[in-house]
């Protein structure tokens, strides 16, 4: 088996793990900003809740339904942004967006499990699935700042 096949297998396992055992699934409650978004082309739907205090994301949770890429991306994103400043979270979102579009991105930053989604860039129809939660997070930060 080649290195690429091993990586693809590992990435698929990481995605399926987040899909079957989502991190941060649930609701924060009334303290958080709530954002609902959907992808009408494939039926993915997400409700993201963020709690932002003093410019830092102190909690992030989601509920929704959709494909394995959409829900695992939401799980990975909530893990990645918890404890980050708003600026750090938006920078991560920018890196993720560039990775999905096949553009160069700052690979000095450890993306952890998020890297498993880089193969999605080869499937343009699935990019919206992967970016749905990230777009919701950006919208949530905008809403919170207003």
Automatic annotation (TrEMBL):
State the organism of origin.
Lottiidibacillus patelloidae
Matches recorded under Gene3D superfamilies: 3.90.1010.10
User: Which InterPro entries does the UniProt record give?
Assistant: NIF_FeS_clus_asmbl_NifU_N
**Which Gene Ontology BP annotations are present?**
iron-sulfur cluster assembly
Tell me the GO molecular function terms. Answer: iron ion binding; iron-sulfur cluster binding
| Short name of any one Pfam family annotated for the protein | NifU_N
UniProt protein name: SUF system NifU family Fe-S cluster assembly protein
Read off the SUPFAM superfamilies from this record: SufE/NifU
Family stated for the protein in its record: Belongs to the NifU family.
Q: Where is the NIF system FeS cluster assembly NifU N-terminal domain?
A: 11-129
